[in-house]
Amino acid sequence: MRVPSVQPERFDHFMARANAAYYARGRFGRDFTTAPEITQVFGELLGAWAKVVWQMLGAPQDIILAEAGPGRGVLMADALRVWPTPNVHFIETSPTLRAEQASRVPHANWHASLASLPPGPLILIANEFLDALPVRQFIRRDAGWMERHVANGSFIELPATHTGAALPDDPPGTVREVNEAAIEFCTTLAARDAIGLFIDYGPADSAPGDSIQAIRDGAYASPLATPGTADITAHVDFSAIKRAVHTQGPVKQNFFLTSLGLYQRSDVLARRHPGKALDLRLSVQRLTAPEAMGSLFKALAVCPAHLPPLPGFA
To answer: Helix, strand or coil for residue 140?
Structure first.
């Protein structure tokens, strides 16, 4: 029997569609675990970070605290324990996740995109957000650059079209990924002189290679199989963001969190709750160990050039 022909879909369009369906199903936190879910200290430290940055800005009364990709609302709920600011906004499109976020942060305001946030001074936090934004993937062949598309559940290659930036003269077989959505998000944020803290995974410097992966039922899976049932991500190109906007960092997550007092805060909680001491130590190890999340994950701040070094980036 012949398989029906399907119009090729550019991979970034496929990834955007698949991830939108995945998050709409409310699978966040079931297939994988993010740092806020590992320990409350993570969100508390980011709340303290945001409060210090707000004070560096002169403590404007109309400050907006926003989070992009807030998951189940755990990070923000922990952050507000340290800095209970009332003007909280979430960038979230999934109705299922919005409902769960509302159970933890009922006074929040929800938006489908960065563009609809109200005007005013803004501090935005985003943990494992950029990695889920769709990437274009190119592969160098003898005749030039080709772009990967998806058809009938498989990759196919078509001649590359404009990428917004020239691809390097790499040898045949080289794979390059371009995250136009991440660059657009960061340039939009920078255009309003906001401060954005992004914690995500990827190398500090741009590097070739296929970094696309999918997680389904807690295990690695094919990113092309059964769209909408797996979380698809790719390494963040921090160098590309640095070329597009003014930034501080990236710095490794272990450096960033320990600079903010991860060990000290965890020790305080361990003394208050001795029964949780072992779990807290294991959480700290998972967040900071180079072989775990400590080196692969980076912290990057998008911010105006006139600001002095922000906490964790000195």
So the answer is: strand
DSSP 8-state assignment for residue 261: T
Domains of the chain in sequence order: 9-136+174-302 (3.40.50.12710)
State the pTM of this model: 0.94
Distance between CA atoms of 204 and 196, rounded to whole angstroms?
Answer: 17
Q: What is the pLDDT of residues 13-37, one digit of tens each?
A: 999 999 999 998 876 666 778 999 9
| Distance between CA atoms of residues 47 and 56, nearest Å | 14
Residue 97's closest CA among 21, 200, 16?
21
> From edge to edge, which strands make up the β-sheet containing 109-111?
109-111, 88-91, 64-68, 122-127, 195-201, 297-302, 247-252
Terminal alpha carbon distance of the chain = 63
Q: At residue 56, what are phi and psi to the nearest 5 degrees? A: -65, -30
Check if the beta carbon of residue 228 is closer than 8 Å to that of residue 18. Answer: yes
Q: What is the pLDDT of residue 165?
A: 65
Q: What is the mean pLDDT of the chain?
A: 94
Q: Could you tell me if 109 and 67 are in contact, meaning their C-beta atoms sit under 8 angstroms apart?
A: no
Alpha carbon separation from 225 to 14, 146, 155, 190, 216 (Å, rounded): 11, 22, 11, 36, 10
